Amino acid sequence: MDKKIPKIAGRDLIDYLEKNGYKKEANIFIYKKVFAALVSDFCHFTYEALMCSKKGKLTVAYALLRKPLKDNLFYLEWLLAYPSEFIKLINNDNSSINIASEKINEQKKKDIIKMALLKAKIESWIDPQFIYEMRYDKKSEFGMEPYFQKANHLITTNPHFTTENCNFNFIFSGQEAMVSQWDQIYSILPFLLFYSFHIVESLVLTFAERDNSCFDSTVTKTMIGLNLCLEKIPWNANIVLENAFIDRIGEFEIICPNCNKRIKLTKRNQRNMYLKNTIKCYYCKEEYSL
After folding, report:
1. 16-46 b/e with 16+ CB inside 10 Å = b?
2. 130 has a pLDDT exceeding 70
3. Beta-bridge mates of residue 191
4. What's the chain's average pLDDT?
């Protein structure tokens, strides 16, 4: 692009680029702008939901989680799975109709999730059916959708989560009900956040590169964190996580700078790596900060 661009932004800039033969550049601009906005919004809502959960405000926590997990994450999946299709649909006069998540049928959602998993290169670890079920399926035994609906509506009539007679959803929750609601959040949310991280990471890598000159433990720590969470999750993790994931944990190659031996990722090392960003070599007893 050798033509000087006027000082304009947003929709005006997109229109200018498209009218002056820079359709490709316009699409790249839309891609990055949509990505950044969706991730920012996702993080704000998820953070506030976690703060509400910490304070015991569980109805608010579930109400806040609905948007990032059902909408923001879905559009990020779509942007990763079929970028050209998504940009074409969002960049026209009927975008609010074309991409409204509640208008997208079940099969299309599952197709997008499956392709996103493939693009993120974690399709061998995670069952796409589980990802869909946890966010959208009203009949799921462990899904979030019944909780989303109850948190956002005082009365629900769906046969799978009908409001009891003489009651309102979540309003009269006692200690036992709150513990159950907490269990639900901390059983499912770590898994969905792990998945969300890999979707975002894969999108970033479509236009940026990691600096390989320094060790970045972020990806490793997300896997270790989930692996530690799985120890306390009540449902059988094998339903969604293939052995390939567990095997990958054991394949991490970290060599001790002092004795040149491979540092074993024991459970203690995994916890220290995740919580304190340190790791210990059990051969020479040296401990390192990551």
Report:
1. ebeeeebeebbbebbbeebbeebbeebeebb
2. yes
3. none
4. 82
